[in-house]
């Protein structure tokens, strides 16, 4: 049955059918041919219960927060400020790409939104200043993946909801690995451009007075991050309430900057509705599919397969990592998470691993899926912002950053405290 489900999933995705619809179709097929229960009678209840959660309200709120920042010009001003501080490094503006993606990740919660924002702002600079298009675009695509690691993260909210894990603990666990990834992205960039200076474009310096003056444009993003994370960890608000406070703060910031207007608000709301509808369709379809898989005995079958391998906890975890890497080539990231979590997490817990730690490990693997072909969404987002060139250039530019992510996977397995240090401390 495992092979049948996998073949059906890949086949339907290859037909360009929307992912949420694919999950429902697979559920229908499994309930018809594998399950002894009339599951279709419970479809309405399953769909409703999968979305009837106050935790999931945080998703549209964080999406709206990101939309307001993009359309209010906050991202463009952040990028210009970081340009003045990091362009003297080997690699120049490439570091501004990574830095802006890191800061924006701390407010948007979405990798695709982060990559799209930075690409829109940065790509004209690459063409004007003569940067290598592969490295420049690859850094944007890789930096965008931090949107689902650094809190607040929509994917971590979904993981916490599906596994009944503490979302504040997941947010804390993702902070150090996310910042380490950003740091190592920059270090790898600097190393490459030190060896091949022609790839990094022009290194520029600015008067110190200009550098200091530019710091004012970093305040809105840092302030929002402090408000969201601070209200959660002081106990003043749940993640959902903190998201609402963040939206109110974003409205205030855009209003003070003079960017707020009815057309801008309408565009932000439309973008929020579109992204939220996609996410909730996937969550609902995955809930139905997971229920049919459980009723058909797939979880038991997969657990028996893992036990039959006889590799022990560490060996089995390495097999799970390989499975995620392979599936990440073909399945959209949120779908990959919601389809596999109910199957993999019980196995991981049974092996003695921590659920919060595995959530962060999974997010790193999902981040890799965002920049590996043929389904890596960030590759297409960045390519869409370019005025020329081929998609293959973005793919090649991502290779150094994929290697960094693989190193992070190895580090998390070898030293789980990288993710668990902050949650255990608090």
UniProtKB/TrEMBL annotation:
GO cellular component assignments: plasma membrane
InterPro entries documented for this protein: DctM (IPR010656), TRAP_DctM (IPR004681)
Keywords: Cell inner membrane, Cell membrane, Membrane, Transmembrane, Transmembrane helix, Transport
Residue span, TRAP C4-dicarboxylate transport system permease DctM subunit domain: 9-418
Pfam family, one: DctM
Subcellular location: Cell inner membrane
Segments crossing the lipid bilayer: 7-30, 50-70, 135-158, 170-195, 215-236, 242-265, 277-298, 304-327, 334-353, 359-382, 394-422
Gene Ontology terms for molecular function: transmembrane transporter activity
Predominant localisation class: membrane
Keyword Signal attributed: no
Membrane topology: Multi-pass membrane protein
Entry superkingdom: Bacteria
Family the UniProt entry places it in: Belongs to the TRAP transporter large permease family.
NCBIfam families named in the record: dctM
Its job: Part of the tripartite ATP-independent periplasmic (TRAP) transport system.
PANTHER family listed in its UniProt record: C4-DICARBOXYLATE TRAP TRANSPORTER LARGE PERMEASE PROTEIN DCTM, SIALIC ACID TRAP TRANSPORTER PERMEASE PROTEIN SIAT-RELATED
Subunit structure: The complex comprises the extracytoplasmic solute receptor protein and the two transmembrane proteins.
Name under which the protein is recorded: TRAP transporter large permease protein
Taxonomic source organism: Futiania mangrovi
């Amino acid at each position: 049955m495992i092979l049948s489900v996998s073949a059906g999933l890949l086949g339907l995705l290859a037909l360009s059918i929307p992912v949420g619809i694919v999950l429902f179709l697979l559920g229908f097929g499994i309930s018809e041919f594998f399950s002894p229960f009339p599951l279709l009678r419970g479809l309405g209840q399953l769909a409703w219960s999968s979305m009837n959660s106050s935790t999931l309200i945080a998703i549209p709120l964080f999406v709206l927060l990101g939309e307001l920042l993009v359309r209010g010009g906050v991202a463009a001003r952040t990028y210009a400020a970081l340009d003045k501080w990091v362009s003297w490094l080997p690699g120049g503006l490439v570091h501004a790409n990574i830095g802006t993606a890191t800061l924006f990740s701390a407010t948007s919660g979405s990798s695709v939104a982060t990559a799209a924002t930075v690409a829109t702002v940065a790509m004209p600079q690459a063409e004007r200043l003569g940067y290598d298009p592969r490295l420049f675009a690859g850094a944007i695509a890789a930096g965008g993946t931090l949107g689902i690691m650094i809190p607040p993260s929509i994917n971590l909210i979904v993981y916490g909801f599906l596994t009944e894990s503490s979302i504040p603990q997941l947010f804390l666990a993702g902070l150090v690995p996310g910042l380490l990834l950003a740091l190592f992205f920059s270090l790898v960039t600097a190393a490459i451009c030190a060896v091949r200076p022609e790839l990094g474009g022009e290194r520029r310096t600015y008067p110190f007075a200009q550098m200091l003056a530019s710091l004012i444009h970093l305040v809105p993003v840092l302030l929002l991050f402090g408000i969201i994370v601070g209200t959660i960890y002081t106990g003043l608000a749940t993640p959902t309430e903190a998201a609402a406070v963040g939206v109110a703060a974003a409205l205030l910031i855009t209003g003070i900057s003079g960017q707020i207007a009815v057309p801008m608000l309408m565009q932000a709301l439309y973008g929020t509705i579109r992204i939220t509808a996609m996410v909730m369709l996937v969550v609902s379809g995955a809930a139905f599919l997971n229920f049919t898989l459980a009723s058909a005995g797939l979880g038991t079958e997969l657990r028996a397969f893992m036990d039959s391998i006889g590799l022990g906890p560490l060996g089995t975890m390495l097999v799970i990592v390989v499975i995620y890497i392979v599936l990440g080539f073909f399945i959209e990231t949120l779908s990959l998470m919601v389809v596999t979590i109910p199957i993999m997490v019980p196995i991981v817990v049974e092996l003695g691993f921590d659920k919060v730690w595995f959530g962060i490990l999974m997010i790193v693997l999902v981040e890799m899926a965002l920049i590996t072909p043929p389904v890596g969404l960030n590759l297409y987002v960045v390519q869409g912002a370019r005025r020329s060139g081929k998609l293959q250039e973005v793919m090649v530019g991502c290779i150094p950053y994929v290697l960094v992510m693989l190193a992070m996977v190895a580090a998390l397995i070898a030293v789980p405290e990288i993710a668990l240090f902050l949650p255990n401390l608090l």
